[in-house]
Amino acid sequence: MKLNTKVPLLIGVVVLLTIISIIIPVEVMMSNSIKTTRIDKLQALAESVSTVTAVNLRAELSVLEEIATRARMREMNWDGVIKEMLRPDVARIGALELGIVYPDGRYRFTQEEPGSVLSLYDRDYVRTAFTGTSVVSDMLISRVTNSLVVMQAVAIRETENPRSRIVGTLVARRDASAALQQILAGVSNIPGSYPFMTNRQGVIVAHPDNDLAMNQVNIISEATTNPNFKSIAEIVSEALHNRNGSGSFSDNGKNYIVAYAEIPGFPWIFYLGLDESEIRSEVVIALLRLIKIGLVCLLIGLIIAYIVGHSIVKPITKVTNAVKDISDGEGNLSQHLNISTKDEIGDLSLYFNRLIERIRSPMCNVKIVINSLVAVAKELNFISESLSTGSKDTQDKSIQISNLTNNIVDNMSSVAASSEECSTSAHEVSNTASQMSDSMEAIALAIDEMTKSIGFIADNANECNRISDEATIKADNANSVMSKLELAANEIGQVTQTIKQIANKTNLLALNATVEAARAGDAGKGFAVVADEVKELANQSAQSADDIAQKISDIQQETINAAATIQGVSEIILKIHQSIDDIVDYTKKQVLASNEMAKNVSNANIGAKRVAISIDEVAKGSHLIAENCNEVSGNTDEVNHNMTILNQTAKNSSVGSDFAHDIASKLQDLSTELNENIKRFNIGCAKCKDKKCVESIKKLNTFLAKCSDWRNNK
What we know:
Elements: H1 3-68, H2 78-93, E1 97-101, E2 106-109, E3 118-119, H3 124-130, E4 135-136, E5 140-141, E6 148-157, E7 166-175, H4 176-185, E8 193-199, E9 204-206, H5 210-214, H6 219-223, H7 230-242, E10 244-251, E11 254-262, E12 268-275, H8 276-328, H9 344-520, H10 525-678, H11 691-713
Antiparallel strand pairs: 1-2, 1-7, 2-3, 4-6, 5-6, 6-7, 8-9, 8-12, 10-11, 11-12
C-alpha cells in the first residue's frame, strides 16, 4: 500500500472512532431530553385545552344568563310568551332545545309533544340552578330523547336585582357526544395522539371509540373484569387523585405517555396521550442528524488527512515520476522539479535538476541539426516534386494543345464547308421568299373578291328579312280575319238555334190548336186546316234551321283549320326571319374576318420581302466565314509544330526532376529516422539559452521562411 493511501486511511480511522465514542452517549441524553420535552408540551397542551373548554362552557352559560334576564322570561308564561320567544334562540346557540323548570319541578320544552309535562326537580343540576348558581350537568341519558346529553341551567329571577327571588330556571339541552368530540377533534390531528375525557367518577365521557362514551363505561370498575383496561384505569385513578399531572399507559399493544388536566369549574378531566413510537421516531431523526454530522466530520477529517498525506508524498512522487519518465517513458529532459523544502527531498530535487541541465545542452544541439536536416530534405523533396509535376503538366498541356489545334483545323474545315452550304441554301430561301410574296398578293386579291361576294349575300339576306317581315304582318292580318269569321259563324249558330226554338214552340202551338179544333167539332175544322199548315211550316223552319246550323258548323271547322294553317305559316315565316338574321350576323362576322385576313396577308407579304433581303445578307456572311476559316486552318498548323518541340523539352525536364526527387526522398527518410530516435527524449530546446542552440535555431527559421516565400510565389 502506497503512502498516499496509508496516511489518509489511518487518520480517517482515528476520526471515525472519535465520532462513535461521542454519538453513543449523546443519543442516550437526547432520547431522555426529547421524552421530557414532549411530556412538558403534552402537559401544557392538555392544560390549554382544559382552559379553552372551560372558557367555552362559561361563554355558553353567559348566553343562557342573558336570555334568562329578559323581561318576558320573568312572567313564566310558557304557552303565551316564552315558548315562541325561545324557538329562534335554539338554533342561534346551537342547542337541541330550550325549556324552563318551574319551582315545583315541572319542565316545559320547545320541542315537546302537546300535553307533555315532566318533573325534573330530582335532577342535581336543577336544584343547583335554583340556588342561583349557573351549572353544567354531567353526562345524562335524556328522559325526552333517550340520548346522551349535557344540560345547562341558569336561574330566572323575579327582577333585575341579582338577589331577588328565583321564579324558575332556564335549561338548555346539548348533544354531549358532538360537543365533547369537538373538543377531542382539536388535538386529534397530532400524529400518534390519544385524547379522551372522564368525569370525576372515572366514567368515560369522550373517547375516540364513541361507544365507550355512549355506554358511559366506568374505566376503573371495568378494569376489575377486563385486564385490557388495567393500565389506562391506573392513569385515570392517578388523575382523579392529582387532577393535573402526567404518566404512561398501554392500550392495544401500544405504549403511550399521557398528560392530564382538570377542566376548571366543571366535573371533567382531559387526557392527552402520545404514542411512544412517535418519540422514538424523533430520536431516530435526531440520531440520523448526528450521524450526518459525524459523516460530515469524517469527510472533513479524510480531506484533512488527504491534504497532510499529499503534502508529504507529493515531493517524493515528483522525483519518482521524473526519473521514471526518463528511464521508461518519453525521456523528458526538459522537466524541472520545483521543490524548495529544506530537507533531504529538497536536496535530491536540486541535484536532479543539475544533472538534467548537463545532459540537455548537447542533446539540444543535436536535435536542432537533425531538425534542420529534416526541413531541408522536406523542402528539396517538395521542390523536386513540384519540378516533376510541372514538367508532366507541361507535357500534358502541350499534347492537349496539339490535339486542340488539330480539332480546330478539322472544325474550321467543317465550318467552311457548312458556310458554303449555308450560302447556297440562303439563295434558295431568298427565291422561295420572293415566290411567297407573289402568292401573298394573289391571296389578297382573292380575299377582296370574297369580301365583295359576302357583302352581296348580306344585302340579299336583308331584303329577304324585309319580305319575311311583310309576310308575317299579312299572316297576322289573315289570322285576325279568320278569328272574326269564326266569331260571326258563332253568332249565326246562335240565330239558327233561336229559329229552331221558335219552330218548336210554333209546332207546339199548332198541336194545341188542332186539339182545340177537334174539341170544337165542325166549327173548328177550318181552324184545324190552318193549324196543320202552320205545323208544316214550323217543321220546315226547324229543318232549315238544322241545315243552316250544320253549314255553320262546317264553316266554323274550316275556319279553325284555316286559322291553324295561317298560324303554321306565321311560325314558318318567323323561323325564316330568324335564319335570315343569323345569316346577316354570320356575313358581318365573315366580313370582319376577311378584312383581318387581308390585313394579315398584307403584313405577311411585307415580312416575306424582308426575309428575302435578310437571307441575301446571310449568304454573303456565310461566304466570308468560309474564307476566314481557311485562313485560321493555315495558322494552326504552325502552332501544332511548336507544341511538338515543347513536348519533347518537357519530357527531358521530367526525367531530371524524377532523379532529383529520388535523391530528396532518400535524404528525407534518413533524416526522419534520425529525428524519430532523438524524439525519444523531450529536450525542451525552446527553453535552452545556449548560444550555439540559439544561432542554429535562427538559421533554421531563416531557411524555412525563404522556402515559405518560394511556395507562396509559386
